[in-house]
Fold:
Amino acid sequence: MPVPIHLPSALAAQTGGLRQHLGDGHTVGAVLDDLVARFPAVGPRLRDEHGEPYPFVTVYLNDEDIRLSDGFATTVCEGDEIVIVPAVAGG
Amino acid sequence: MATLITPQREAALSHQELTRYSRHLLLPEVGPEGQRKLKAARVLLIGAGGLGSPAALYLAAAGIGTLGIVDFDVVDVTNLQRQVLHGTSDVGRSKLASAIDRLREINPYVQVEPHEVRFSRDNALDLVGRYDLVVDGTDNFATRYLVNDACVLAGVPNVYGSIFRFDGQVSVFCTAEGPCYRCLYPEPPPPGLVPSCAEGGVLGVLPGLVGTLQASEALKLILGIGDPLIGRLLLVDALGARWRTLKAKRNPQCPACGTRTLTTLIDYDQFCGINVASAAADEVPAITPREFVEQRARGQDPLLLDVREPHEILVAEYPDAQLVPLGSLGEAIPALPRDRDIVVACRSGARSAKAVRQLQAAGFVRVWNLEGGILRWSDEVDPSIAKY
Structure:
């Protein structure tokens, strides 16, 4: 099931210059795995060396932070969207 | 929602002020009562830069009675692309002096309280505690965590805004009912992972969008109207012209606003790994641009490896350099010579220091960092090269 993934412009360089992608999978982690399989350079920007979420990159399924549900094991359904929101500090 | 200003604090308005604020008074949500609240309000802007500029201009125009501004920086010509509080003739002046002049011209009824200090854990609680509300216009992670913790400890709402390249974030943290910045981001990224705007760039109008949203949220909180961004994170995507609102919930495990185990301010540089990073940068072997040019003049032939991005070369180019952007260095390593000195260069010397460490980890020993990058090259070797 293809799920839209929205990336900030800062990560587009790692994903062929595009900020919107589709990933296949039944969990948030699997969908991101599918993206990383096509764009390996973005992998370390999305999860740590143990495959866990970073404390400074929030992953949303629709408008919910996955850390407050089942993390990368959170199930995705038809019509869901994933939004990646890294911490930025510019002012 | 509840207002931050009790009726007892409302400040009387003169005839001139009533006329000035006519378009506010016509709004039933503001009216004379709301305008008296704005006049009574004390707002602390931390940073008079990209975000602080539009926030200060609009908050002053709106009639906020007292605007405290914390900044110790000087106006630089590279600020003018986005920091609209300052003008060309202000280059070299303190940002606070420039801000005071500009804000007085916008609205002489506003009392500006300048704090020309570095916002630190020594003064943060004292400063924040003297205001009703904080607008976070800082530009680094260490100060953002400091602002957050000071606001939680002092019980002062923090109108947060942050920007990078084409993306912005806005929220309201540190209220009685909502989350704080630590709930959203429990820890900062390691130093160097997320570039600053000085390294990665920012669309000049983006802080205008985000800073005015911060001003709007501040006005709503003071007036007690509308739905402020408490418990919500607003993403501003300037490239896509899209706004998206996400939920930001209080984390019961948050040491600041959840368990409240964080009872005093901490060492934020250490929390953000800054001391460790700068110590590591010092360990990299280095050469100055002048020394490098003298080496070349003596007939030595070190390879000058430029790790900047291709679009940066269009602005300022090193003579006879090989371009390998930092992100592609890993792939380029097998083709780099191990029997020749390599001098790695970038804009300021930060990215090249990383590249030197990467090359050292790959077994290169004859590798140096070009100290100060092309900025110092322009100062010391060739002033015709543009600084950016």
Q: What stands out?
A: Chain B has two domains: 7-277, 284-380. Chain B has a mean pLDDT of 94. The interface with chain A takes residues 47, 49-52, 136-141, 144, 161-167, 169, 184-189, 194, 196-197, 200, 202, 207, 233, 235, 237, 239-240, 244-249, 251, 327 of chain B (CB under 8 Å). Chain B has 17 helices and 13 strands.
